[in-house]
Write a structure and sequence with these properties.
- With 159 residues, the protein is of the alpha+beta class.
- The protein has 2 helices and 8 strands.
- The strands form 2 sheets. A 6-stranded antiparallel β-sheet has the order 3-4-6-7-8-5, covered by helices on one side. A two-stranded antiparallel sheet has the order 1-2.
- It starts with a strand and ends with a strand.
């Protein structure tokens, strides 16, 4: 579901677009256990997105990564970033161009700090280049005030 929410910080009456998990699932084919974003906090089509991932000890990957010292795998942090950026891309192109979105490349990926159960990840994505069926985006993932990951991502719409 997509809902409009008043942006009180701007005070100009503009409303950022937000989505709950059901709205996200309308755009992404991912389902449990592989849907890695919980909420869209802000989305400006053609520009930017801010998404949320709540990291819980109940997530299956913590069972083996690592026993006694749970750390979220870096590739899953990057995947959460890719999913948020995928929603941004799909909301930024005409509906008739939408389809199955594929993560097609990654540049400048950096994992800066371990993510552990109880962390809340805020994922910021921004479009660098957008075509009808391809996009290049940048993403930064933070936990609190700390950057935990960043990358430049590419995605394409499959046929």
């Amino acid at each position: 579901m997509i809902e409009k929410k008043k942006n009180e910080s701007e005070g100009d009456g503009s409303s950022p677009m937000v989505m709950d998990i059901l709205g996200i699932m309308d755009f992404l084919p991912h389902r449990y256990p592989f849907i890695l974003i919980d909420r869209i906090l802000d989305l400006v089509p053609g520009e930017s997105i801010r998404a949320l991932k709540n990291v819980s000890m109940n997530e299956g990957f913590f069972q083996g990564h690592f026993p006694g010292k749970p750390v979220m795998p870096g590739v899953l942090i990057i995947e959460a970033m890719a999913q948020a950026c995928g929603v941004l891309m799909l909301k930024s192109i005409p509906e008739e161009n939408r389809g199955l979105l594929f993560f097609s490349g990654i540049d400048k990926a950096r994992l800066r700090k371990p993510v552990i159960p109880g962390d809340q990840l805020v994922i910021d994505g921004r479009i660098l280049n957008l075509r009808s069926k391809a996009s290049r985006m940048t993403g930064i993932v933070k936990s609190g005030n700390h950057v935990v990951a960043e990358a430049v991502l590419m995605a394409v719409i499959g046929s």
